[in-house]
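Priority: medium. Attachment 1 of 2:
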């Protein structure tokens, strides 16, 4: 699988280019302030972008969407429950002192959990994982015919290496987030590589065993 990530200050949010080494087809996930870096990589490697996928609509994950859409001319996909956040993203950026280009309309909304489509020799499926915000989803990548997420799981701001997404923003909810982590993300095998919205990658097994927020939640609820 092709995988390229980039992050820049102030948010250090990971933008990703993921796709197929044989066909050169890729998707761009969460283009933000690092969008120029992602686009330069796509040009240099002569990649064929098929879609812009959003894990969620917080400003750090969408500030490069307009530029990516204009250059790549591919549809934008998002979960419908983040429509209000997407609509407010430019104003949200202003609160941080950022001048964000108005966002183009979303072209398609995810219809629900399950298969999204293929990117060359790879399947992309998604699961709704709310809690950090109403419309956060995770994307699972696997070679067609193999187990979902065998190539990795892109989780947005739900789960980080040793931490979890914040739940104090509008639409955030802590128990909902913890259920998304323990019931949805932890349904994937322990060796699944996790690509969070910020910071280094991790694995499902490592977070299941050692994430302090997860362990605390397990103790409180008796969940396993
Ligand atoms: Zn977020
Ligand atoms: Zn973020």
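Attachment 2 of 2:
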């Amino acid at each position: 699988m092709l995988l390229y990530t980039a992050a820049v200050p102030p948010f250090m949010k990971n933008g990703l280019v993921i796709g197929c080494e044989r066909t050169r087809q890729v998707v761009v996930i969460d283009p933000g302030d690092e969008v120029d870096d992602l686009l330069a990589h796509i040009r240099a490697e002569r990649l064929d972008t098929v879609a812009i996928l959003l894990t969620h609509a917080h400003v750090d994950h969408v500030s490069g969407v307009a530029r990516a859409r204009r250059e790549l001319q591919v549809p934008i996909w998002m979960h419908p429950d983040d429509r209000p956040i997407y609509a407010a993203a430019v104003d949200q950026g202003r609160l941080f002192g950022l001048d964000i280009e108005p966002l183009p309309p979303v072209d398609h909304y995810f219809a629900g959990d399950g298969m999204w489509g293929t990117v060359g020799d790879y399947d992309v499926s998604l699961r709704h994982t709310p809690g950090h915000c109403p419309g956060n989803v995770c994307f699972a990548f696997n070679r067609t015919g193999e187990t979902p997420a065998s190539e990795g799981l892109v989780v947005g701001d739900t789960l980080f290496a040793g931490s979890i997404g914040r739940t104090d923003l509008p639409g955030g909810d802590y128990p909902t987030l913890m259920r998304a982590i323990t019931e949805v993300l932890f349904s994937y095998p322990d060796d699944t590589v996790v690509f969070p919205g910020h910071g280094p990658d991790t694995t499902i097994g490592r977070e299941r065993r050692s994430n302090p927020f997860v362990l605390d939640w397990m103790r409180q609820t008796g969940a396993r």
